[in-house]
């Protein structure tokens, strides 16, 4: 699943890192720049066409909170030097932040510092959104091209949690799946994860399948399942167990990887009878594969500052 520059849409003239950045930003930006209402569910709100002007006091308060957090102990003068705001404005906003218990004045240290309450601001962020942030605009683009809904998920214990879904912009979406948790053994995302994760992770999950009496996962089932995962590694994608809900749909999943680590999975789901079997590769698998490669490249670029011809997702051995 390693991406070439051409497949990822990356121009390789001049500085590779700069061109990769420009290409990725261009593609992502083209998907994010669609104007919509501030409360629209369709796509992403374009802040350049927002409903109201920026509330300067809120922006300034956030800037001050950011400076205090970064400096650890921030004096009035140091905040003033960084933000160039009037000191009277800084004092008013600091006192507001102190009233709300986000900032405290530490007289012993001679400045302001953040309190433990600022941790509450990050409770909705667990590190996983980085994958969502990178994948989201590319998944939107995928749905715009194919019209079929795409989902992005991450492993959550022995389940897969659906963290993003483009069904709201797909004319052929049916049941909403955002927030649902799918089974690792039967879902396309779970199978894609198990096919490409480390041997230790795979064996650990399969061991739990084996010990779960409700699964009926004996030696015969395990052999068949491992063979299925082996085939998924060869193909580069996995498919959902057809005997599971939603029954009228087929879902294809591919792993989102950085080097050899699986960070998440992306799917494309379609009505089984709407796409002839001989057209699935061209209409579903290849567009999904192209999108996955771009996501892998974007993750690599964010991590290393460089990507392109030298960036290859590590090949996997089809044998476990």
Q: Shape from CA axes?
A: elongated
Order of helices and strands: HHHHEEHEEEHHHEEEH
Class inferred from helices and paired strands: alpha+beta
| Multimeric status of the protein | single chain
Helical coverage, percent range? 40-55%
Spans with pLDDT under 50 lasting ≥5 residues? 1-20, 31-39, 307-313
Strand content: 15-25%
Organism: Microbaculum marinum
Protein name: Helix-turn-helix domain-containing protein
GO molecular function, one term: DNA-binding transcription factor activity
Keywords: DNA-binding, Transcription, Transcription regulation
Written description of the protein model:
The protein has nine helices and eight strands. It has two domains: 67 residues, Winged helix-like DNA-binding domain superfamily/Winged helix DNA-binding domain (Arc Repressor Mutant, subunit A), CATH 1.10.10.10; 176 residues, GAF domain (Beta-Lactamase), CATH 3.30.450. It starts with 15 loop residues before the first helix and ends in a 16-residue tail after the last helix. The strands form two sheets. The chain has a six-stranded antiparallel β-sheet, with helices on both faces. The protein has a two-stranded antiparallel sheet with strand order 1-2. It is of the alpha+beta class and 320 residues long. The N terminus is likely disordered.
């Amino acid at each position: 699943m390693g991406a070439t520059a051409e497949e990822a849409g990356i121009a390789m003239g001049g500085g590779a890192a700069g061109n990769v950045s420009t290409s990725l930003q261009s593609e992502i930006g083209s998907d994010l720049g669609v104007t919509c209402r501030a409360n629209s569910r369709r796509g992403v709100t374009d802040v350049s066409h927002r409903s109201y002007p920026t509330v300067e006091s809120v922006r300034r308060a956030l800037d001050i909170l950011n400076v205090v957090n970064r400096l650890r102990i921030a004096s009035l003068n140091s905040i003033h030097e960084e933000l160039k705001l009037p000191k009277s404005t800084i004092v008013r906003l600091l006192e507001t932040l102190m009233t709300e218990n986000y900032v405290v004045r530490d007289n012993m240290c001679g400045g302001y510092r953040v309190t433990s309450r600022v941790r509450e601001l990050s409770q909705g962020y667990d590190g996983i959104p980085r994958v969502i942030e990178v994948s989201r605009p590319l998944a939107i683009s995928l749905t715009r091209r194919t019209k079929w809904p795409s989902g992005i998920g991450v492993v959550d214990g022995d389940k897969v949690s659906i963290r993003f879904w483009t069904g709201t912009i797909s004319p052929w979406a049916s049941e909403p799946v955002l927030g649902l948790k799918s089974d690792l053994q039967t879902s396309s995302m779970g199978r894609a994860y198990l096919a490409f994760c480390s041997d230790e992770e795979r064996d650990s999950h399969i061991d739990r399948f084996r010990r779960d009496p409700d699964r009926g996962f004996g030696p015969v089932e395990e052999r068949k399942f491992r063979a299925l995962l082996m085939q998924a590694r060869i193909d580069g994608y996995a498919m959902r167990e057809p005997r599971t809900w939603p029954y009228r749909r087929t879902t294809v999943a591919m792993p989102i990887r950085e080097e050899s680590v699986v960070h998440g999975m992306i799917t494309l789901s379609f009505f089984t009878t709407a796409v002839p079997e001989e057209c699935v590769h061209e209409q579903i698998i290849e567009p999904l594969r192209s999108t996955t490669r771009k996501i892998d490249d974007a993750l690599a670029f964010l991590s290393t500052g460089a990507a392109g011809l030298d960036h290859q997702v590590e090949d996997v051995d089809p044998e476990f």
